[in-house]
Design brief:
single chain, alpha/beta, Rossmann fold, 4 domains, 5-stranded antiparallel β-sheet, 16% strand, elongated, nucleotide-binding, PAS domain S-box-containing protein
């Protein structure tokens, strides 16, 4: 008999489980279900009174095997993908439970229902591509709050001062060059000149930007005109401006401050081009509001203060912070690769779009573009599954974890069930067509549908 204190603790424990949005299953060492919360009831449509006290294997063979494997090994598993039904997608974390003496007493499985996430990514993936300037789509077509705020500020800046200098900040591949070209296309009529500040030595970069008088060159009769003057009504895009030498930074800051370049003969040439720059490190946050006491502190951006504060900074978030955009971005680059390579546009299974959205994409847009090219090159007519995407993007599945422990008969039944599900999906639920596709009679198909609980 429980005492009053134990009863209170149990009540808190059950309330805590029911308050959780994830489905929670607790089993003892033998695999008997001890707890089954409300989220689990909703996810699997099994009332707790029907499953608590029963062996988990009677309801979920794969999940039962995984729980037993976790208890046998004493090692937890995290982020395991599972599709318990054709219309359900979950990620599972399973951990063994030990008592104070270290004795194994059971396991807990926590399952996050990602069905809505998969559905939203499917909708995002299959929506119509934006019209107009498609090359800007991976940046402009966003649901990310931070990026939307940055683009709203950019729109306001363009309306107020279309010649303002802009500093684009973000990781490699987030789209700084794409956005620079978009800004140029919106505001300038002249050429777009891109200069990588890493590629030129200090002296050459200075000459490339500001030019040099003729007497500095042997056997030269004309002066070398710099890109800031040649670009005229266009844009000069200074990539990796943080690699620019300090003396050149000082000259550029002076040119931006004065709105022009003063040459060695005293002639002043107005600055008619727009300057956009990019760096791969984070900017000084709230630089304008920094107190005087902190102005001499080392800046996270390796630019001189005089140059840094001449720019309007804009930060582009990495793709791992734009989960809601990834499916649409994948769609864009997949279609772009299909058109460029002259190959059919692949279709992706729902779980694949979810896996792509869950991946961290360390290479950002560049990595997405190359991955989608790979899928176009290697993909066939059938919808692509986990085996078609790069290994680093494939989540571990319950099938991966439990295949070795499945009996031959169980594997055969599961394979047959999957084949029938696939045939029914291919034929839109037409049983006569599905039976022909499977090479069995319609009566045999009806029997198997009833056997596997798939009559609907």
């Amino acid at each position: 008999m429980w005492n009053e204190r134990e009863g209170q603790i149990h009540a808190f424990y059950e309330s805590l489980l029911d308050a959780m949005p994830e489905a929670v299953t607790v089993v003892d060492r033998s695999g008997t279900v001890l707890s089954w919360n409300r989220a689990a009831e909703r996810l699997y449509e099994i009332p707790r009174e029907d499953i608590v006290g029963q062996p988990i294997a009677q309801f979920f063979q794969r999940a039962s095997l995984m729980l037993l494997q976790v208890m046998d090994s004493g090692l937890p598993v995290y982020g395991v993908y599972h599709q318990p039904r054709p219309d359900k997608h979950v990620y599972i974390n399973t951990v063994p439970v030990t008592d104070d003496s270290g004795e194994l007493i059971g396991a807990i499985s926590i399952e996050q229902d990602i069905t809505d996430v998969v559905r939203l990514n499917e909708e995002r993936f299959h929506q119509q591509d934006m019209g107009g300037n498609e090359q800007w789509q991976p940046i402009l077509d966003t649901s990310n709050r931070d990026l939307k705020e940055a683009l709203t500020f950019l729109e306001q800046l363009e309306a107020a001062d279309p010649s303002a200098a802009v500093l684009l900040i973000g990781e490699s591949g987030v789209g700084k060059s794409i956005l620079a070209r978009f800004i140029h296309a919106k505001s300038r009529s002249g050429p777009f000149v891109s200069i990588d500040c890493r590629a030129l030595t200090e002296g050459l970069l200075d000459v490339e930007l500001f030019g040099q008088d003729a007497h500095y060159f042997a056997h030269a009769s004309t002066q070398k005109v710099g890109k800031l003057e040649l670009a005229a009504e266009g844009t000069v895009f200074l990539r990796h401006i943080d690699k620019m030498a300090v003396p050149t930074q000082a000259k550029l800051a002076q040119a931006l401050q004065e709105g022009g370049i003063t040459k060695s003969d005293g002639e002043f040439t107005p600055l008619r081009c727009r300057i956009i720059a990019s760096i791969d490190t984070a900017p000084v946050e709230n630089a304008a509001s920094m107190s005087e006491d902190h102005r001499d502190a080392p800046s996270p951006v390796p630019l001189t203060p005089e140059l840094l504060y001449m720019f309007h900074p804009m930060t582009l978030p990495p793709l791992r912070e734009r989960r809601e955009d990834i499916a649409g971005i994948c769609r864009f680059y997949l279609r772009q690769a299909s058109n460029r390579l002259g190959k059919p546009l692949p279709t992706l299974r729902p779980e694949v779009t979810a896996a792509l959205a869950a991946y961290t994409w360390p290479g950002n847009l560049t990595e997405v573009q190359r991955t989608m090219e790979r899928l176009v090159i290697t993909g066939g007519e059938a919808p692509l599954d986990f085996s078609d995407i790069p290994p680093a993007m494939r989540p571990m599945t319950v099938k991966d974890v439990t295949d070795a422990a499945m009996s031959l008969g169980s594997l055969a039944e599961e394979f047959e069930r999957e084949r029938i599900q696939h045939a029914m999906a291919q034929t839109g639920g037409n049983k006569a067509k599905a039976a022909r596709l499977l090479g069995i009679s319609r009566g045999a198909l009806y029997y198997k549908l009833r056997r596997y609980g798939m009559s609907e």
